[in-house]
Amino acid sequence: MTITKQASPQINLALTAIYEKLYAFYGPQHWWPGDTPFEITVGAILTQNTNWVNVEKAIDNLKVHRVLNARALYELPLEKLAALLRPSGYYNIKAKRVRAFLDFIFGKYGGSVGRMKKEETRILRKDFLAINGIGQETADSILLYALEKPVFVIDAYTKRVLSRHNIIDVNARYEQYQNLFHHELDEDVHLFNEYHALLVRVGKDYCRPKPRCEGCPLSVH
DNA sequence: GACCAGGCACATC
DNA sequence: GATGTGCATGGT
What we know:
The protein has 221 residues and is mainly alpha-helical. It has helices at residues 9-26, 37-46, 52-64, 70-75, 78-85, 91-109, 113-117, 121-129, 136-146, 156-164, 174-184, 189-205. The model has no long low-confidence stretch (mean pLDDT 95).
């Protein structure tokens, strides 16, 4: 167990218990579901408010057309890109967002995700958030899962699980949720990766908008 | 057919 | 700072 830091014993205990229960129940999740840092980055944008199954269809389209790399995708006309992204929903907007991110990668790192990865985390996050279409969750997903930076990702599942367990108010801001993890847990990429993936898993299985708590490994309600 | 899905930007108050 | 709206496909 790598959870050791303790700013607030109560919260630390709760977060530790949740992680241990989920890990014991599900085991490792092997996230992100994508092969390369570039694929993960694109996936992070496409999955905004969208079922992952639909995102996979769009990613498959990019693979079939052999454009799932920075250069090829950047050279693809916006309308063609949008057409390939169609299954993931919001395809016109997402095409612009992917393009905006590519503008950034090519503008600052010559189109190299590897070069971008060497940049300081604080700088990257600030730059990402300045890109149109990249909000906090998307920025942090790219930082953690594509670039392996120790940043905890807060999404709808994370909020639902934590608020329903009375660890934090459901209306708390993104930063407040994130501080829970950053203040209580060691900044460990592997831990943050696994923990968030497990929260998504239990969120899909049990902690749904209409809760289905029977058999839930956290069984609190 | 309604509800939901690993958000975000923008307008308005 | 809080709230409302557009964006869109496909699964359950």
